[in-house]
Each structure stands twice: as structure tokens, then as C-alpha cells.
Design the sequence.
């Protein structure tokens, strides 16, 4: 069974304040041109996407240069709904295994498209970030627009330790009662700091 955790890419979809808008238009029409085509203009942080270290660090390693194995792995879901801060808890020591892809369910995706989605979201604490570093997780996936706010120290901690960040997930609640699943989060093979992505969970 496959669960799509990705927002659909549409014209004018919500973007982080200050980022360029998404433009998706049909450029050719079968009735006139005898074929159909579409043109997409999108910044790499619109909708469901993966942040790479180049996004906030002074480095020149494009996301497409990471090994493919980075984007596929055993998933671990943590239910952190109803919290403003996702902090370290003792139970996470045995719930999170090394090299997993950790997915957080906050429930915040219900506000996607509303003004407060990008303004009032739960954030990770340094102690939780250090746990992810110690567990050497591949990626952290969030149903929020970011793991932190300015000056984005959590981003930088994760990036310095080569942990990628999946932002703007949806339908994460469908994993709440799942015992085991695999995450497949594939970015475009694009020469960029980050990439829009199709993220799915495969239930074993």
C-alpha cells in the first residue's frame, strides 16, 4: 500500500512569504496545436520539498549530488500533535533507530493555504535536533513549513550533519496506526540547493 504525502502542484499554490509564486499554465492545446503541453515556473521550496545544506550553508553541494540511498529508507513516525515545541523525550531513544527517516505528525498541515500556516507552526528544540544527529537519521519530515524560525539554527545543525529536511508534508495522519513503513522521497535530479519532491510512504 502506498500513501502519498505530497501536496499537489497547482497554479498559485501557497509559498513561503517572500518566495516567488508558482505558475502552472497550459502552453499548448490539442484543439489548436494538435498536442498538449504545460509550462511550470516554481521555486524549489514550494509545496512538498526537500531542503539541502546549500540552502542555508556556504557550500556548493547540490541536492542532486547526494547518494540516492539518502532519499529512501525505513520510516519512523512520532506523534507530536498539539505541541508548540518538539522536544527531546526519553522514549525517542528506542523509537528512533539509526539511519531512519523520521516523520513528525503535528497536525499543522490542516492550515495549509491559510495565513497562519507559515506564521504559527511548531518548531524543534536544539535537544531534539541533537538526538537526530546522534541517531544519524537520513532525513526529518515535517507537516509544517520549517523545523524552526529565524535565525534557522536547527536547519543549520541538521545541515552540518548532512541531515536533509522534508517540509510541507500532508496526510501524515494516515501513518498513525501503521507499524512499519518505508519512505521514498525523491527530489528532481536538478542542479539546485533544494528540490520539490514526491514523497510517499510504502506500508510493508
Sequence:
Amino acid at each position: 500500500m502506498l500513501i502519498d504525502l505530497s501536496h499537489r502542484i497547482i497554479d498559485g499554490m501557497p509559498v513561503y512569504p517572500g518566495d516567488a509564486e508558482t505558475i502552472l499554465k497550459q502552453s499548448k492545446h490539442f484543439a489548436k496545436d494538435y498536442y498538449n503541453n504545460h509550462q511550470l515556473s516554481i521555486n524549489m521550496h514550494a509545496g512538498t520539498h526537500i531542503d539541502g545544506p546549500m540552502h542555508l550553508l556556504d557550500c556548493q553541494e547540490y541536492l542532486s549530488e547526494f547518494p540516492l540511498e539518502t532519499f529512501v529508507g525505513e520510516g519512523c513516525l512520532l506523534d507530536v500533535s498539539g505541541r508548540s515545541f518538539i522536544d527531546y523525550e526519553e522514549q525517542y531513544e528506542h523509537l528512533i533507530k539509526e539511519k531512519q527517516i523520521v516523520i513528525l505528525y503535528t497536525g499543522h498541515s490542516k492550515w495549509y493555504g491559510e495565513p497562519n500556516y507559515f506564521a504559527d507552526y511548531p518548531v524543534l528544540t536544539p535537544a531534539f535536533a541533537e538526538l537526530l544527529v546522534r541517531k544519524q537519521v537520513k532525513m526529518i519530515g515535517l507537516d509544517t513549513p520549517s523545523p524552526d524560525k529565524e535565525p534557522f539554527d536547527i536547519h543549520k545543525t541538521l545541515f552540518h550533519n548532512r541531515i536533509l529536511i522534508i517540509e510541507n508534508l500532508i496526510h501524515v495522519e494516515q501513518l498513525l496506526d501503521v507499524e512499519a513503513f518505508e519512505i521514498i522521497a525523491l527530489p528532481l535530479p536538478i542542479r539546485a540547493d533544494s528540490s520539490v519532491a514526491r514523497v510517499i510512504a510504502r506500508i510493508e
Remarks:
- The mean pLDDT is 97.
- The chain has one domain: 2-203.
- The chain has four helices and twelve strands.
